[in-house]
Amino acid sequence: MGMKNRINAEHYIWGDACEGWRLLDDNDLAIIEERMPPGTAEVRHKHRQANQVFYVLSGTLTLEVNGVVEHLSAFDSMNVRPELPHQARNEGEEDARFLVISAPTTRGDRTPS
């Protein structure tokens, strides 16, 4: 596969101003670096199969999982099991940068909740 980073990884925009870089995109494992500017949020959703780990690189990420809210800072992580409704948002004053590690991939596995 070779080295991947924000320069050579597949890049996409989601929501109003959030970004993602696909560092690994296999059927059994996906790793995405994401950037959420202050005041942004994803749509609350769940995954049927994917088990996810959110690992914060910088900033603060607010992660609501099944009604419980956690504030993750740099080097904090949180596991989100399949079927649990969740939402990531940035309530801070700086960009939140984090990795989302999913096994298996979340492609085609997301449903609103």
TrEMBL record:
It holds the Pfam family Cupin_2. It comes from Sulfitobacter pacificus. Keywords: Metal-binding. It comes from the Bacteria. Residues 34-101 form the Cupin type-2 domain. This is Cupin. Gene3D superfamilies: Jelly Rolls.
